[in-house]
Design a protein that fits this description.
It is a single chain. The protein is globular. The longest helix has 29 residues. The protein is built from 11 helices and 9 strands. By secondary structure, it is an alpha/beta fold. Strand 1 and strand 2 form a beta hairpin. Strands 5-4-3-6-8-7-9 form a 7-stranded mixed β-sheet, with helices on both faces. A two-stranded antiparallel ribbon has the order 1-2. Helix 7 runs parallel beside helix 10. About 2% of the residues have low confidence. One of its GO terms (cellular component) is endoplasmic reticulum membrane. Keywords: Endoplasmic reticulum, Glycosyltransferase, Membrane, Signal-anchor, Transferase, Transmembrane, Transmembrane helix. It comes from Drosophila mauritiana.
């Protein structure tokens, strides 16, 4: 009897080991180590509404020519985008008027939108000029991470901020991120990330959310901690500020283009030992979210595990390390 049980346990463990090795082999076989960043020809230019001519976007590899680039990923955001851009541009214009050395651009990245997002954004470009507002129209939907990456790769700023199109984070809180980033990285050539955070609002969120959504929230936070990021409490707030040097390192290495891209960015930053600071920001939940709580978080949970597994077995590698070694 004892011998049979031992044999059964041996066979089960052997089967599990074979299954695990098979999964690892499949991941290694089907996964490219470095991201293959494709850009359609039409995505290399933007329209200047005043001259009615297309102009080629600059490259993130170029030297910066502005103080700040704001990247706004937008998918079917014709309703929520105007209020966000109104607040954003009013703040930036006021800041620019008070400090002539402060120059900026806003790049709205339409992620394959099917509504009037592009037309709305072009209206702001016409009003403020293409030097200040540019529209990058992606041919197909890549996901939020893919849209943010394309905007970052097209930016001119010494520092680069991505901000969600819903305007949930109060844009004047940029000042708090700017102060935190300068403490980490006095120059754009230095590394640093200032991360907007809603962690201080967690108790209020629990009070207003259903029990089911609260369980999902805590479960997601645990999976992030377990598989990816240990030093940041809120990885998902869409308000993050990078130096140009850091953006180059992270967005050329980013594999995930959907909702879990924030986690991979911060996972990469932790592994590269880049300086990070989590900064409390004001945040209000805005109607119209594209996330469906259960299925979106289930997908993100799967993505978190795959991020961990692929880096663990070497299926994914960090492009900036490869460049440094070369």
């Amino acid at each position: 009897m004892w011998t049979c049980l031992c044999q059964l346990c041996f066979y089960l463990l052997s089967a599990l080991a074979v299954a695990a090795l098979s999964i690892v082999a499949l991941v290694l076989y089907k996964t490219k180590p470095y991201p293959n960043i494709k850009r359609h020809k039409d995505e290399e230019t933007f329209l200047d509404p005043h001259t009615i001519k297309t102009v080629t976007f600059p490259s993130l590899e170029d030297s910066p020519s502005l103080e700040l680039s704001v990247i706004v990923p937008a998918y079917n955001e014709e309703q929520r985008l105007p209020s966000m851009l109104d607040e954003c541009l009013a703040f930036l214009e006021q800041k620019s008027a008070g400090s002539p050395n402060f120059t900026y651009e806003v790049i709205v990245v339409s992620d394959g939108s099917q509504d009037a997002t592009v037309s709305v954004a072009l209206g702001y470009s016409k009003k403020h000029g293409a030097e200040k507002v540019r529209v990058l129209e992606l041919i197909e939907n890549r996901g939020k991470g893919g849209a943010v990456r394309m905007g970052m790769l097209s930016a001119r700023g010494r520092n680069l901020l991505f901000a969600d199109a819903d305007g949930a984070t109060k844009f004047p809180d940029y000042d708090k991120l700017e102060v935190a980033l300068k403490q980490l990285a006095p120059e754009w050539r230095d590394d640093g990330i200032a991360i907007g955070s809603r962690a201080h609002l967690e108790n209020d969120a629990i009070a207003t959310r259903s029990f089911f959504r609260t369980i999902l929230m805590h479960g997601f936070h645990f999976l992030v901690w377990l598989f990816a990021v240990r030093s940041i409490r809120d990885t998902q707030c869409g308000f993050k500020l990078f130096t140009r040097t850091t953006a180059r390192k992270l967005f050329t290495s980013l594999h995930v283009e959907r909702w879990a891209f924030d986690v991979e960015l911060l996972y990469l930053a932790e592994n590269l030992k880049l300086p990070m600071s989590e900064v409390a920001v004001r945040w209000t939940e805005i109607d119209g979210s594209k996330l469906t709580p259960f299925w979106s978080w289930l997908q993100m949970g799967r993505d978190l595990f795959m991020i961990w597994l692929r880096y663990l077995v070497g299926a994914w590698r960090i492009a900036s390390i490869q460049k440094k070694e070369k």
